[in-house]
Design a protein that fits this description.
With 399 residues, this protein is mainly α. The chain has 17 helices and no strands.
Amino acid sequence: MGILFFVGVIIISGFILGKFSNKLKLPGVVGYLVCGLILGHSFFNILGPSVLGRLEVFNDLALSLVAFIIGSELHYSSLKRIGRGIITIIFSESFGAFLLVGLGVYLLTKKLYLALLFGALAPASAPAGTVAVLQEYRAKGPLTTALYTVVGLDDGLAIIIYALSSALAKLVLVHQSFSFFSFIRGPFFEILGSLLLGGFLGYLLGFSIRRVKRKEELLAVSVGVIILCTGLCNFFHLSLILSNLTLGMVFSNFFLFTSRKVVDTINLVVLPIYIIFFVIAGAHLKLSLLGGMGVLGLVYIFCRAAGLMGGSFFGAILSKANRVIRNYLGLGILSQAGVAIGLAILVGREFSSLGKLGKELSLIVINVITATTIVFEVIGPITTKIAISKAGEIGKKLR
């Protein structure tokens, strides 16, 4: 069968299971992931490796649209209402997860290099799952704005934490010399380049559609610029999430009236892309890995959840944030997928060449992170819904 046949199967079956998920009072994202599990390796293997490989472009497209939508929601006026404390919260929840996971893994294994690597992977979030739930329930309010900000920005900090931690892990493992500058240089230029590219294209998009009136034309130009941004990120090895987030943020803050029309137009066509993205994500997951993750996986799950929720709560207290942000933000940032798996694969590339111990470490990290992703991908959207429901922001309109 041609690839379009599989795309059609994915959209229709994903939509049906998403509606069934809604009947159970669960977010549609859960239904899409379950659909992927059923169609993927764990059950019927309709979406085998060869098919999934040909569908990878939808992952980049979905993440780019998600990042752009996040950026478009980060208006200066909204961020000003939240205050500078949101930066404190981002640092607190990221380092809370890093420290608690690192401590838990060290107490279990007594291996510092393993503790450093698992701790470094813990802060990475999955913005797509959180954003899909916020959009599905038309959430509006201070918690929603805070969630958009945190899941959009904490991956940049996660990249820096990983770079430093992996360097220290190598030092512990094989006694390599450590240069702070050489290891921070890569992440620094990746983040700076992503911000500059996104900012430039945000201005370019704003100026290019000033005279465009029809929705179809707005959609064509805006999606074209987003895809262009993603292609440049892949070519120059930049972060497509940070770059498209900056694109959306610059565009929405400097071209406010036009940006609202663009985002509303994109939202009309984004659902099929979301369905494809999450069904593909579900198809990649292997339930057989759950049984093999062992105590280490359980420690990672518990400590990461506790670190994110406790860290965000502590950061909100320090910054004197809104009560709903303090109480419920941690529930909305538990999703973990692409970035964490990408970093785990990077561990495999960097450490597998460091002898037998390095290869064993790589296999442990990749298997445990892949297995725990199944848990976080399912519970993350559910806890996000609980958070915005408790905060009273489902379907709420800002005045």
